[in-house]
Amino acid sequence: MKEMQFLVQYSNEEPHYTVTVRKEKRNITALCTCPQGGAGLLCKHRLSLLAGKAKIVIGDNADKIKDLVSWIAWTDVGNAMNKIAEIQKEIKKAEKELADATANLAKQQQELTEARNKLIKVMGD
Ligand SMILES: [Zn+2]
Fold first, then answer.
1. Ligand 1 centroid from CA 18, angstroms
2. Distance between Cα 2 and ligand 1 center (Å)
3. 11 CA to middle of ligand 1, Å?
4. Residue 32: per-residue pLDDT
5. Could you tell me the distance, in angstroms and rounded to a whole number, from the CA of residue 1 to the centre of ligand 1?
6. Which pLDDT score, from 0 to 100, does residue 21 have?
């Protein structure tokens, strides 16, 4: 069994937590000492680490993130992380489409108002 530990901090406002990742054959476990992790919930610390985000590591082993990413490749954890990344990409795309559609809606509503005002004016003449 291989094990890595990372001291992490997501933002300056929160305390430090320790994420422990263990690899046994192709089985990966990741534990975090934060309240969410302790409650068995998926926390941002583990999500960020497994996504390869070294910037949350405040210990001196941030370079080990590369090893962690290679550990999880082709495991269930890696596949699940890929799926999450894929869905996040789709959400970003959908958010942009929604923003574009919202802007277009506002433009069309403005044009409708102008056209109605013109009708009122024409009818009044
Ligand atoms: Zn955590």
1. 8
2. 20
3. 12
4. 95
5. 22
6. 95
Rounded CA-CA distance 103/117 in Å is 21
Q: Report pLDDT digits (tens) over 68-114.
A: 999 999 899 999 999 999 999 999 999 999 999 999 999 999 999 99
- Closest of 5, 38, 8, 2 to residue 22, by C-alpha: 2
Average pLDDT, stretch 30-46?
Answer: 92
Q: DSSP string covering the chain, please?
A: -EEEEEEE-SSTTS--EEEEEEEETTEEEEEE-SHHHHTT---HHHHHHHTT-GGGB-SS-GGGHHHHHHHHTTSHHHHHHHHHHHHHHHHHHHHHHHHHHHHHHHHHHHHHHHHHHHHHHHHH-
Residues surrounding ion ligand 1 at CB below 5 Å: 32, 34, 37, 43, 45
Q: For residue 63, what pLDDT band results from cuts at 50, 70 and 90?
A: very high
Q: Which sequence spans correspond to the domains of the chain?
A: 1-73, 78-125
